[in-house]
Amino acid sequence: MRKYIILLIFTTICYAKESQIELVVAGDIFPSPSLISSGISKEGRNYLPYYEFVTNIIAKADLAISWFGGPVAGSGEKFSGSPVYNNPPEFITAAIAAGFDLFFHTNHLLDRGLKGLIRTIEFFKTNGSVYLGTYLSEEESKKIYYFEKNGIKIAILSYLYGANAKVKTEKWMINYIDPLKISNDIAKAKTEKADFVIVGLHWGNEYERFPSKEQKSLAKYIISSGADMILGSHPHVIQPAELIDGKFVIYSFGNFLSSQRKRYTDAGLIAKFIIEKKDGKTFLKKASYIPTWVKWKLNPDGKKYTIRILPIPEFDKKYKKKETKILSKEEYEKMMIAFKDTISHLNNTNIPFLYEEE
Prior knowledge:
The chain contains ten helices and 17 strands. The protein is α/β, with parallel strands linked by helices. The chain has a single domain (20-355), classed as Metallo-dependent phosphatases (Purple Acid Phosphatase, chain A, domain 2), CATH 3.60.21. The protein is globular. Mean pLDDT is 94; it is low at 1-16.
């Protein structure tokens, strides 16, 4: 009898014990001529230093996600930024080395045609990463992407509003925003025993700091279809977060790494989510974020720039304590404008979704 009591206690403890996954999400990563050239030296191309001060945040998460703009360049092709992107291979591998595991697709995926898209999907796979929302085969397109760890199964879906380049592809090759397809994909994930469903959307109007009526309407539909979280990008500025029927929605993460320097476009964030499973139920336990700002300073040679993504709270403290020389007074003031813009726009005590000081 004693043996059965011990077994019952052990089983009860195991079932009640909670498990967690930490998810980190950042916004758009887009190249530009200056971003590309500033990472080139006599030793070769190296863009990892751009992430020097955020790698420790990204890499320690269980899963890290962002949006990546444009294809990888083929052998002998010239590199380029907006409006038609063509990335150095090292620009992509730097983002992966910084800790990102999965990248949502964007409207620039066809900038180098069908061959460029196929090359890019293969490149991400070869380098141990995922370029989600675009596929090499119809069979592959029918499969839901799952991230599983600590007994938690998360379905992750990716859709975009459209592609800039008018290139003919197979219908199954790219996930475009189609409410019925999104609803069916969520239902499929549920039947395949997903504990939590995340939908990534590349949508919204550029440079608008608030979501459009269309975004709000689509978000409500997707949540009503069973999604647990919506993550948005494309406007190049941060848009607010809210709860819809108790589910977390952030309409735009803004830029994470880009050459856009105007107010609001130079600010981004790293969101941190704790997803917990307890007593058979999976839910968002905690949501927080770290405001970021891109330092962009012309070097004495007048050709290249020193570029770094800075976690603002950390560098605010370091600057005040005179523990860093990376920021001039003018740069510090610009960074703090971005900080105030971000927290006044994004902090939400109802969720809660608040910035982390450290």
